[in-house]
Amino acid sequence: xxxxxxxxPSSAGVRGGPKRALSVLTFGYFVGFAGVVVYGxxxxxFEDVLGLSGVLLGLLVAAPQLTGSLLRIPFSAWADSVGAKxxxxxxxxLSVVGMGGLxxxxxxxxxxxxxxxxxxxxxxxxxxxxxxxxxxxxxxTDTAYWYTSERxxxxxxxxxxxxxxxxxxxxxxxxxxxLAFGLTGTYAAWFAFLLVGTILFVVFAVDSPYxxxxxxxxxxxxxxxxxxxxGQELFPGGDALASIRTxxxxxxxxxxxxxxxxxxxxxxxxxxxxxxxxxxxxxLDVRTAGVVTALTFTLLSALFRASGGAISxxxxxxxxxxxxxxxxxxxTLALVGTANLYVAVAATVVLGAGLGIASAAIYQLLPRYVxxxxxxxxxxxxxxxxxxxFVVPPLLGLFVDLRGVSxxxxxxxxxxxxxxxxxxxxxxxxxSEPTTVxxxxxxxxxx
Length: 447
Known about the structure:
Elements: H1 18-33, H2 43-50, H3 54-70, H4 72-82, H5 85-109, H6 119-129, H7 135-146, H8 149-163, H9 166-204, H10 209-215, H11 220-229, H12 240-248, H13 251-281, H14 286-315, H15 317-337, H16 341-369, H17 374-385, H18 388-403, H19 407-410, H20 413-431
Helix pairs in contact: 1-7, 1-8, 1-9, 3-6, 3-13, 3-18, 4-5, 4-7, 5-6, 5-9, 7-8, 9-14, 10-11, 12-17, 13-14, 13-16, 13-17, 13-18, 13-20, 14-15, 14-16, 15-16, 15-20
């Protein structure tokens, strides 16, 4: 259909339509993805009150990435079995539980009674707060089911692009809220935001037509036929976990995962780490540190990522990844060697550009290099690759423990090394012969 949407989904017995589905999914992901910065912008407050080492601080700010990355794989498989609404709602509900737990600890113990003994619980609830990040793999698949090929790419970009703006916005807002309402008041407001957002999602979310018909008792073939009449083109491709197992046997899946570990994992890790870097190493107050993080990295990297697909289509994914990781290497080299604020700001912008564009280019390469199991490889790349957001911050914190304040700068050598490794992989892929593009590409399931 020329519009890319079902002509009249209501006449086919479908509740809702593509525009409603996309709007609610994007809103839900915006709400859930805010959990990625649950500790980052206010990390210095926890660091002072709990007396945290650099490693413990790094683990704390990375806590949301643990669940937010690893849960993407099983929840995307679940969504392909029952539809998107239930898995998405469960992930947001877990985020609400996590934020409620953090708030309860603060109400009961902050500030005088809060000690290092509370750290395991604070880490646990922070991990739960990050569950909403995993909703990406659910929402991206459902968006692909709702839209036909003419508009699918644009709608997927809108979902991913608008949904990922919340970390940048919350990085700006959180320090101001901290100064205005205190730590407990800030988390109370955050809890209310999550709770209301989750309720709105549950009330207004709708599954794609195929799953709506299946839930009404129609058999597989009849549900597909009715859903096609409502405009749906893509359908679940079978056992999603089997596709993941197949992808895991293909070496190129792991090369792409390693690159995504550096690119998107780096985006997640540094989004939570940069506020501490700006405040502790460059002496900025918490509000300014949050604003600088958002404007020079978090929001900017998301915008560069949105353009990365178009750049890859024009010059090729291999060339784009090589250039992008080259920028990562150059910018981290500058961050390791400078104490000048303005040089660091410029290097951070370049770093954000490199990581954002590379993240998009990797998914442009995926169907060409793993055509045997695009869906499974997408899940591996998005889930395990995003795990870099949890692994890297403690390594950065180790440099702070070993070198003191200067470790905030020298710690970027971790990303210098990772950037060189990713650059080597990108060059190797460029020199290799890509596999033929599959004639049918399943709905994407990764980030």
